[in-house]
Fold this protein.
Amino acid sequence: MPFCPTCGYDYVKGTAICPECGEDLLLGEPRFCDNCDSQIDADADYCIHCGIIFEKEMDEAAIECEAHPGVGAVGVCVVCGKPVCRECAHAKKGKVFCDTDEHVKIYENWAVVYTSSTEYEAEMVRANLELVGIKALVFSQVDHAYFIPMSRLAVVNVMVPKPKLAKAREVLKRLKEVEEDDEFESEEE
């Protein structure tokens, strides 16, 4: 029976695309990760949700750590997909991360896509992302107890769901290009 790898719904035979999310349906029974219980592809070598590598037959080549060739990986970074060994791996809330600090900021499948020192700028980025259909949240460390900014070191992060991270970065890149083109045109006048 066809099922959606994203939604997990079963559909009638002959259906090829999930009407809910647009993903291609897979045939067979859904497979679930032993570590996080998330639905995964039947032939996956690792879980894209938690980063744990599945044990395979001994005749198959083991996944090696990207930073230490020849050393077997214990997981795959859930953000960038980089295989990591025990020395490189950082586990947080049951998920595997590489040693890139930005990747450790992931929480509950949300990733930082933009960082600012002002809430106004972060809210503008959030609004632009939501205009193209990407849900975004703003997390602010700004102290609201004072009416004047007490520190320029306060961080305001815009976060998006991990599966939408690449698309969100692409949208922000296009927005930056448009902004640079507008600056260039105003300099010519």
